[in-house]
Specification:
heterodimer; A: mainly beta; 4-stranded antiparallel sheet; about 0% helix; B: about 120 residues; mainly beta; 12 strands
Chain lengths: ~110, ~120
């Protein structure tokens, strides 16, 4: 059983550079979520896809952030013009459609902006 | 607004002790779901349990048990006879329900459990 995978696991970038992360969900899941986790905090919701449609975006997701899920399978999260405040763990999760299904999380991508 | 509070930031116990992790939630929804996740030092969040708001039965799974009380808006988690491998950060989370719900999770700030040998 293949779980959620994320790539890369770690990314160090300089302020002002663009970065892109990839998430491959569990193949049977049509819902995909992105969360951000900073040190000592719980994950915070960023955005959500049902198949290829992006149905909700958090206010945390500034204009510098964009996410896609072009064929309803893998997803990418791009951050343009990175800032030091973007340093965090970016988590991807997937689930079945429907009410209350548990989400399964990937290992995360740890972003450090210097 | 929905909110989850985990007042215990850190708990340290000695192996074989029982430990209870507290979770208090706020929501105006009548239908909702509650979850517990474990985040070991490796970092990956591991799903432990889901409970819907209509099911107040307590649940036991091995050394783990959960106590859901709507009257006090609490969903507490007890580990019996703790082991070193239980050392992790534990998160309680809440999601909305109903038509069109995204099921996004609202997490608490987590409780770091350290089990000493």
């Amino acid at each position: 059983d293949t779980g959620v995978s994320q790539d890369p696991r770690h990314k160090i970038t300089k302020r002002g550079q663009n970065v892109t992360f990839r998430c491959d969900p569990i193949s049977e899941h049509n819902r995909l979520y992105w969360y951000r986790q900073t040190l000592g905090q719980g994950p915070e919701f960023l955005t959500y896809f049902q198949n290829e449609a992006q149905l909700e975006k958090s206010r945390l997701l500034s204009d510098r952030f964009s996410a896609e899920r072009p064929k309803g399978s893998f997803s990418t999260l791009e951050i343009q013009r990175t800032e030091q405040g973007d340093s965090a763990m970016y988590l991807c999760a997937s689930s079945f459609s429907g009410e209350g299904y548990e989400q399964y999380f990937g290992p995360g991508t740890r972003l450090t902006v210097t | 607004a929905q909110k989850v509070t985990q007042a215990q930031t850190e708990i340290s116990v000695v192996e074989k002790e029982d430990v209870t992790l507290d979770c208090v939630y706020e929501t105006r929804d009548t239908t909702y779901y509650l979850f517990w996740y474990k985040q070991p030092p490796s970092g990956e969040l591991v799903f432990l349990i889901r409970r819907n708001s209509f099911d107040e039965q307590n649940e036991i799974s091995g050394r783990y048990s959960w106590n859901f009380q709507k009257s006090t808006s609490s969903f507490n988690f007890t580990i019996t006879a703790s082991q070193v491998v239980d050392s992790a950060v534990y998160f309680c989370a809440l999601s909305e329900a109903g038509g069109g719900a995204t099921n996004k999770l609202i997490f608490g700030t987590g409780t770091l459990l350290a089990v000493q040998p």
